[in-house]
Amino acid sequence: MTEINEPLAGLDAIDWAELEHAYGPADDVPGQLRALCVGDASARGKALNDLYGNIFHQGSRYPASAFVVPFLARMAADVSLPDRDEHLELLAALAIGYDEAHLPAGLDIAGWRRELADFRARDPQEIRAEYDVWVEGATDAGERRVREMRRAMFDREQQLGAAEAELGAYDAVRREVPALCVLLGDDDPAVRAATAYLLAWFPEEAGGTLQQLLEVLDGETEPVVVATALVSAGLLGDVGLVERLAPFLTAGEPVVRWSAATALARLGAIGAERTFSAVVLAELAAAAAEPPEPAVLFHAGDLRGYAAASLSTLADRFPREALAAVTDGLAATSGPGSFPVAAAALRLAFGEPQRGVSPEFDELDERQQRLICTLGSLDEKTWRWANFWEIVRAWGLPQQREAMRAYARMLPNERGPQPDDPPC
């Protein structure tokens, strides 16, 4: 049967039942792609949700994922179709997974390709021997059980297949990038922003895309599009862009100033004059305390978390100020929004994770004590998450709120530290 809708041309030529996604054969994918093109908004929403669930299940990609990419790209380019920005967002997700894993440094595609090649070449017995050593290095019984479970679950072929599906999806999206660049000039600002976001993740295409992102900065009027293009340019470029992006630190819109600071922090602007670096620090600190609006797509819209991660890049130049800013931002968080900020703060305060016996509270310096008190003051909504327990556990700190408060010698119901307060 001939496809009527050009973006879906060739859909029936693919043997979807022979391709796998999260739930087995991918024979439901054609119907979901067709539903994205219909006029009924609820049907489109369900189809998009289904696709996130089967070809991008919890961030994983599958053999079927790469085959979906050309259809999504053609849908995004077809101005007669709705929700084109959402198609671009799904393309980005299929390419890189969750972007927090690549921020603030940007995507290391050379390292990704090298890692997969190394894994292909390795002897499975050698990997199992490394698992044995890793299990023996567990510091307690609970950690040992977790490590033993991971060792038992190791399946070289399955892991290799998953890794190849991820890189296969990435390269499928990469092939569409040159054609999608035209959408930087689309009439829909949401499409322009989503396109600028997508381009951030393809450094191998930067020879063509970076200049187009910089051209967006010359004529774009929508703050979100400008902000997105700034961050993307910062993720793709090098220190040669510092002078080009620095003027945006004085923009009228807070989200544009934040994006300029984010880009410059990544580019190594901290190596410039101290006064210039201080402006970057101030903008990121302001975002950590009160994230600007409207949000952009990076870091799932969590600009506080992204600001905290960017502040960590300033730690060698402004160690006290960076930690103070992230601690202030942490005090304003709750629930999952606390996770990236807490991790950034702990890394700034104590270095890389190192489990062991916590030092006595009195042995900590004032900045570290203030962070501990802030952690102890976070609400139960935050402390009920096992994800949060794992973050504090990684630094050898108490995993329960009351235990953290006791460690910090906080009184019951005592409020946490506020900006400029001494330690609790």
Can you tag this structure with a few keywords?
two-stranded antiparallel sheet, mainly alpha, 424 residues, 1% strand, single chain, 60% helix
Tell me the helix content.
55-70%
Helices, by number, come to: 21
**SSE-based structural type:** mainly alpha
> How much beta, percentage-wise?
under 5%
State the end-to-end distance.
Answer: 72 Å
Mean pLDDT: 92
Question: Outline, from the CA principal axes?
Answer: globular
The major sheet is characterized as: 2 strands, antiparallel
Query: Strand order within the widest sheet?
Result: 1-2
The overall strand count is 2
The helix-strand sequence is EEHHHHHHHHHHHHHHHHHHHHH
Stretches where pLDDT is under 50 for at least 5 consecutive residues are none
Radius of gyration, taken over Cα atoms and rounded to an integer in Å: 23 Å
Folded structure, characterized:
Strand 1 (20-21) and strand 2 (24-25) form a beta hairpin. This protein has helices at residues 29-35, 41-54, 63-77, 84-96, 109-121, 124-136, 141-153, 156-180, 189-199, 206-219, 223-236, 242-245, 254-267, 274-289, 303-311, 319-331, 338-350, 366-377, 380-383, 386-394, 401-407; strands spanning 20-21, 24-25. With 424 residues, the chain is an all-alpha fold. The termini are far apart. The protein is built from 21 helices and two strands. The mean pLDDT is 92. It is globular and about 70 Å long. A two-stranded antiparallel sheet has the order 1-2.
